[in-house]
Specification:
This protein is mostly helical. About 60% of the residues lie in helices and about 0% in strands. The protein starts with 8 loop residues before the first helix and ends with a helix. The relative contact order is 0.07. The mean pLDDT is about 90.
Length: about 70
């Protein structure tokens, strides 16, 4: 299982040290702002796909997106 934890910068070093000291934690690595933004975008996209499959939303066609440009 993967867990994303949002920690203030000033406490990040201590939190990383604590997490690394736990024997059951396999990997600890900080994520930069761009990686967090990408992660959030992917989660949002996955949620939209889920809603689309459930028929709760409709998405624009490729042609509609091109027309907006």
């Amino acid at each position: 299982m993967k867990i994303l934890i949002d920690i203030p910068d000033r406490q990040a070093a201590f939190a990383l040290k604590v997490l690394k000291s736990l024997s059951f934690v396999k990997k600890v690595r900080p994520m930069g702002d761009s990686a967090v933004e990408l992660w959030n975008d992917l989660q949002e996209a996955a949620e939209e796909v889920k809603l689309l499959k459930q028929g709760q939303i409709t998405l624009k066609s490729a042609q509609e997106l091109l027309d907006e440009l």
